[in-house]
Amino acid sequence: MLGAGCGMFACSNFLTFLSSLPVLTAAAILRYCSNTRCSNYLEAPMWVLGIFLLLVSLAGMTGSCCGVTFMLWLYQWLLFLLILVLFCFIALMLIAMGESGSKSGSRWDLLQGIVAEEGNWIAIRSCLSESKICSDPAVSRGNSAVLLPIKNGCCKPPSQCGFVKNGSRWTIPKSGLASKHQDCLTWSIKPNRLCYYCKSCKAGFVGRLKNDWGKLTTFSICLVCFLIINFIIGCLAVRRSHVVALFQTTRRD
C-alpha cells in the first residue's frame, strides 16, 4: 500500500513537471522567435507560470524521494494555490475581453480602455513602428483579405477614405477623399507614421490582444482541469501514505 501511495505521488509530480515544459517552451518562443517585441505582454506571465510549475514539481519530487513529509504537504498547498491563482486569472481575462458581458456591447471594454490610455498607446505605437510590421509584401500590394486586423488598421488607410493605390503608394484621388473621418485625415505616407496614429490601428491592436489573451485563457482552462486531476491524485497519495503510516505505528504498539 505504501508503494502504491509513493507511485501515485511520483506520477503526480511527474505530470506537474511535464505541464511546465510546454509553458516554458511557449515563453521561450515568444522571447527568441517572435517577430515583434510588442508580444512581450504574454511573455512574462508564461515565464512565471512555467517556472512556478517547475519549482512545485521539484518540491514534490524532493518530498517523495527523500521522504520529507513537509515537502509533500508544501507541494500540495502550492498546487492548490496555483489552481486558485489560475481561476482568478481566467476570470480576470474573461472580464477584460468582454466575453462575459452582454451581447449588446454596452459593457466597458477593459482592454480597449487600457490600450487607449495615452501613455500606453504611445509606447505601443512606438513598438509597432520599430518592429516594421508594415514591411509585409501583402501590405504593399494592398491585399486586405490576407492581412491581419492589426496590419489592416495600422499599415493602410481605411477603405472608406477612398485612397487610390499608385504603385507602392496610396494617393488621394482627384475627386478628393470619400470620407472626412478622422483616420482619413490622420493617414500619412511617411513609413514611421502611416496609420499608427489612427483609431483603426488601436482597434486592430486590441483585436490582436484579445486573440492572444484568448488563446492563453483557453490554455489556462485546460491547465486548471489538468492540475485539479493532478491535485486529487496527490491528495489520495498523501492520504494513503498517512493511513499506512498510522497502521504501521499501531501494529508496532
Q: How are the elements arranged and paired?
A:
Layout lengths: L1 H31 L7 H27 L2 H28 L13 H7 L1 H13 L6 H5 L7 H7 L8 E3 L2 E3 L10 H5 L12 H54 L1
Antiparallel strand pairs: 1-2
Helix pairs in contact: 1-2, 1-9, 2-3, 3-9, 4-9, 7-9
On the 0 to 100 scale, the average pLDDT is 77
- Count of helical regions: 9
Spans of 5+ residues with little confidence (pLDDT < 50)? Answer: 99-108
**Beta-strand content estimate:** under 5%
What is the chain-wise order of helices and strands?
A: HHHHHHHEEHH
Structural class: mainly alpha
How would you describe what is shown here?
By secondary structure, the protein is mostly helical. 70% of the residues lie in helices and 2% in strands. It has 9 helices and 2 strands. A two-stranded antiparallel ribbon has the order 1-2. The two termini are 20 Å apart. 26% of the residues are buried.
Would you summarize the structure shown here?
Helices cover about 70% and strands about 0% of the residues. The chain has about 250 residues and is mainly α. Residues about 100-110 have low confidence and may be disordered.
Keywords:
2 strands, 253 residues, two-stranded antiparallel ribbon, mainly alpha, single chain, elongated
